[in-house]
Amino acid sequence: MVQKAKILLVDDRPENLLALEAILSALDQTLVRASSGEEALKALLTDDFAVILLDVQMPGMDGFETAAHIKRRERTRDIPIIFLTAINHGPHHTFRGYAAGAVDYISKPFDPWVLRAKVSVFVELYMKNCQLREQAALLRLQLEGGGQAGAVGDAKEPAGLLAELSARLAAVEEQAEALSKQLDDESVDAAAVATAAHLERKLTGLRRALDALEPGTTGAAPPFPSQH
């Protein structure tokens, strides 16, 4: 089973971190605090995060500089960043946020429900990607072990692994399809929609690879709904 996703909360004010924790606790994920940009970068060295909530105004390394460091690192550059900022800043600040690689830019005071809904989308996408990586790892193991199993005349074990992989992938496909419909029905960030579409393409590729390995399979898998 996939472990809980980690969400990185970056703010130099403890009361703001406490408020974020109160808002996001309903998601039942792991919330990690960082009180500075430097502390956030240290946390990103060892842990994987589904999304980062990053305050713009911080002493020392501000949010823009922190985001620039995150996006330069191979390990962390694809993690979604949501900037949180005071409401009195002009459009140039918003542009700087998106230019720094943010997927969203939310002004304070923000609607707790809206923030929680936005974060939940990225958590769901992260969980689906984790499941996809698990299926891919199992498929590699099956392919690597298939030759050895065939050498000793054990054809049943690879077939059983294929069936298990196919069933697990079907469950992920069903969840991803439900998420895609949810994104169609709601007003969400273009980045979330694009990430969901990328996930669907990966699922389609994995399904085709599994179908090609199934003995006696001649047809292609049903097409996965496209995300527009």
UniProtKB/TrEMBL annotation:
<dbReference type="InterPro" id="IPR001789">
    <property type="entry name" value="Sig_transdc_resp-reg_receiver"/>
</dbReference>
<dbReference type="InterPro" id="IPR011006">
    <property type="entry name" value="CheY-like_superfamily"/>
</dbReference>
<feature type="domain" description="Response regulatory">
    <location>
        <begin position="6"/>
        <end position="123"/>
    </location>
</feature>
<protein>
    <submittedName>
        <fullName>Response regulator</fullName>
    </submittedName>
</protein>
<keyword id="KW-0597">Phosphoprotein</keyword>
<feature type="coiled-coil region">
    <location>
        <begin position="162"/>
        <end position="189"/>
    </location>
</feature>
<keyword id="KW-0175">Coiled coil</keyword>
<feature type="modified residue" description="4-aspartylphosphate">
    <location>
        <position position="55"/>
    </location>
</feature>
<dbReference type="Pfam" id="PF00072">
    <property type="entry name" value="Response_reg"/>
</dbReference>
<dbReference type="InterPro" id="IPR050595">
    <property type="entry name" value="Bact_response_regulator"/>
</dbReference>
